[in-house]
Amino acid sequence: MEVFSDLIDSSDTTTSKVIPLRTNRSDVNVSSNKSNTHITDGININSGTNSTRDTHNRVDKSTVSASKSMSSNPSAPTLNDRDWRGTNLPSSSLTNVIPNSNSYQSIADKDLQGGYSSNHMLEKSVDTTVINDKSEQASTQPTLVDATSADITTNSSQLIEPTDVLPTPIVSNDDDHEPIEVEIKTHHYNTRRKHKTAFIQIALRVSIASAIAGPYAAQAVEAIKAEITNYLRRNILPSFTFIKYKHHADGLFDRVKARHVAGGHLQTENMYTDISSTTVNITSVVLLINICTLVSGFLVSFDIKGAFLNAPWNSKDPKTYIRIDKHLAQVWIQIDPSAAAFLTDKGELILELDKYIYGLKQSPLMWQAHLAATLKRLGFIKLVNDDCLYIYRKGKHFSLIAIHVDDILQLATSMELVDYLHNGLIETYHGVTFERQAKSYIGINLTVSSDRKVVELDMVASIQQLVDKHLDKDYRSYSSPAGNDLFELTTDSTPLPKGNKFLSIVMSLMYIARLVRPDILLSVVYLSTRSQEPTEQDYKKLLRILSYLKATIGIKLRLSCDNLHIQCHCDASYGSHHDGGSHTGYWISLGTTKSYLYAKSIKQKIYATSSTEAELVAAVDSVKTITWIQNLINEINIQHIPQSTLYQDNKSVIFLIKDISKHRRSTDDMVADTLTKALQGQKL
Q1: Quick check: 501 and 429 in contact, CB under 8 A?
Q2: What does the pLDDT look like over 95-125, one tens digit per residue?
Q3: Nearest-CA neighbor of 406 among 438, 368, 444, 378?
Q4: Residue 144 burial class via C-beta count within 10 angstroms: exposed 0-12, middle 13-18, buried 19 and up
Q5: 537 in helix, strand or coil?
């Protein structure tokens, strides 16, 4: 076998000793003809059988030790069926073989009486030709065999019982050196052909010191380097480039965009330290626009191209590589000819990352940290109540910015502050696009009045895209997003087939509802509770929302704030869901103009036992949101805000909230205190 002859000096035929496969049978034939069988990686060249077709593959490994004193004794006992399991082989059972052949012994299954052996009995054979029972019988004594010119064949009746472990040869250079361990891998293939073949692979295990000092030192060093390189490059991720047609928020075509991304979905936890990043709260964006109308400020937008590539590689993250396929590699070489020297045999490029590219799990966090450091250097202060809101003050003027990944929306009370941020960004980042009058942000189309006191929001392009894709042109038009049967559920309605687009449409509508169309929020939220097992009835309700949006596509959300007084209208629907759950809804606005700020519609997580309880649950939820908004406005600190107002139409709830102090009992009178508190002394 080539691997064997490559590792042992073929000129040394006097000092090498091998333990061959032995059998307790006496009908072993020795052929003087040179073997016609060349065993290569899993394929027997002359047998006409490709072992890669076989699905049954077993690999056995074993090692045994050879005595330093070896001899060939014709009278030595042969190995019994189960003696192969042992490691203490008698020295008299050893036969000298010159181990420099390009072919080696193969082991084949043999059928018994015309059928296949159920226990995979093994026949010892090199040649794939089956020798019939009338073959000439050879001597029963062990014979010196020249492996370069001899084959060992057997009769069809000469079978060897299978064992889990086959004997492993030990090659000893001479008596003054320790034995060199040899590994044998046997592959047993179960095929449908009458004659089967298994193969033996042999490789010497040597120490690094011996390999470097040996006759193949150069090859050994290269093999070691290759193994270390493979270890260092264990974090290799696939990558690909996608093309995207970008449109403005009004639906008009903008440009063709290409982006190369890494296969971050294959990243494991050992490939990053942290991935937790944040984006600006949508309510914070709407608040910023409301403040802009309040102070008649300038609304400006920035976009940083290739933002993630600005963040240098964190030394705490392990080295990570990406694979560039052969097609893209050719384009890469046209741009950078020096990369041609690094092409792999497959024509690919393996690149070590020194920047965070799109697709990696930790890239958004690293970019966010880099941008935060840049803004801090410019004097911006991050707000406590929203990690993606920053404020900068200069005298009586201020600048408030919201960050969504690489998109920045700025409110500034003077153009001087706009230019200050613009210059600071282009000094640090390349490819900063700038709109002195923001036209869009995170998919929202912005229309600012000439006096900057009114801003209208819409998502006409997104709505039109959904309608064109999922609604028939002749579908009935509706003037409301839902009928009186919204919460009704018919149990015999036909389930939608698997692979339907129900959830995808609902989530697209959810984004539109939360940003600019709160009038469809209730219907969309309810249908989201049906997304796991939607029916034809649910789909009709979904189409009604699309039909309503089509009929009212021109509606815009108008923001115009005259003060920052927070007002919240809160309501609840008791037991409206088919499982008895109640529903919460509240609307938060600012000032006397009741400029829209936030809306929420959600199924209650607890099951109320009365309408009063359902209303109380909704009120508590709304107060939590009011408190956060109030803290955020106070942190911005541009004007004093009066106490927030909560509007409620349930008299029982109003009574409980106003006179809540009258319903308290002192701890001394509460008998159940012992069940909720670790009381001590007299109270216990």
Answers
A1: no
A2: 333 333 333 333 333 333 344 333 333 333 3
A3: 368
A4: exposed
A5: helix
pLDDT tens sequence across 584-612: 999 999 999 999 999 999 999 999 999 99
Identify whether the C-beta of residue 237 lies closer than 8 Å to the C-beta of residue 261: no
d(CA 272, CA 631): 35
Instruction: Look at 270 and 555; give whichever has higher pLDDT.
Output: 555
**CB under 8 Å to 2, separation ≥6 — which residues?**
40, 102
Strand-strand pairing, 645-647 and 28-31: unpaired
* H helix count then E strand count, the chain: 14, 26
Q: 125: burial class by Cβ within 10 Å (0-12, 13-18, 19+)? A: buried
pLDDT digits (tens, 9 = 90+) for 133-167: 434 444 344 333 343 333 433 333 343 344 444 44
Contact 159, 107 (CB under 8 A): no
What letter does residue 264 receive in the DSSP assignment?
A: G
More confident position, 359 or 666: 359
- Looking at the DSSP assignment, which residues form a beta bridge with residue 630? none
Identify whether the C-beta of residue 316 lies closer than 8 Å to the C-beta of residue 273. Answer: yes
pTM exceeds 0.90, yes or no: no
Q: Distance (Å, rounded) from C-alpha 35 to C-alpha 129?
A: 11
Where do we find the tokens 């490559």? Answer: 6
Mean pLDDT of the chain: 75
* Average confidence (pLDDT) over 330-355: 89
Q: For 112-170, give the DSSP string.
A: BTTB--TT--EEEESSSSPB-TTSPP--SS---B-TTT-EEEEBTT--B---SS----E
Residues 389, 284 contacting (CB under 8 angstroms)? yes
DSSP run (H or E) holding 332: helix 326-335
DSSP letters for 57-117? --EE-------SS----TTSPPP-TTGGG-S---GGG---B----S---EEEE--BTTB--
Q: What is the pLDDT of residue 272?
A: 78
Name residue 538's amino acid.
D
- Of 290 and 85, the structure prediction assigns the larger pLDDT to 290
Which has more confidence, 25 or 654?
654
Element (H, E) at 634: helix 611-636
Please report, as a single letter, which amino acid is at residue 265.
Answer: H
Centroid of chain to Cα 684: 56
pLDDT band at 675 (very low <50, low <70, confident <90, very high): confident
Q: Are 645 and 594 in contact (CB under 8 A)?
A: no
- The closest alpha carbon to 513, from 481, 540, 485, 541, belongs to 481
Residues 333 and 330: their CA atoms lie apart, in Å, by 5
Name the CA radius of gyration of the chain, rounded: 40
Asked if residue 301 lies in contact with residue 435, where contact means CB atoms within 8 angstroms, the answer is yes
Q: Are 430 and 324 in contact (CB under 8 A)?
A: no
Nearest residue to 528 via CA among 548, 509, 500: 509
- Neighbour-count burial for 180-209, b at 16+ CB within 10 Å, e otherwise: bbbebebbbbebeeebbbbbbbbebebeee
Instruction: Give the H or E element holding residue 588.
Output: strand 583-590
Higher-pLDDT residue of 162, 435: 435
Q: What is the pLDDT of residues 173-214, one digit of tens each?
A: 444 444 444 444 444 445 554 444 554 555 667 788 888 888
∠ at Cα 151 (147, 157), nearest 5°? 140
The larger pLDDT score, comparing residue 249 to residue 54, is at: 249
> Which helix (DSSP H) or strand (DSSP E) does residue 394 occupy?
strand 389-394
> Is 308 in a helix, a strand, or coil?
helix
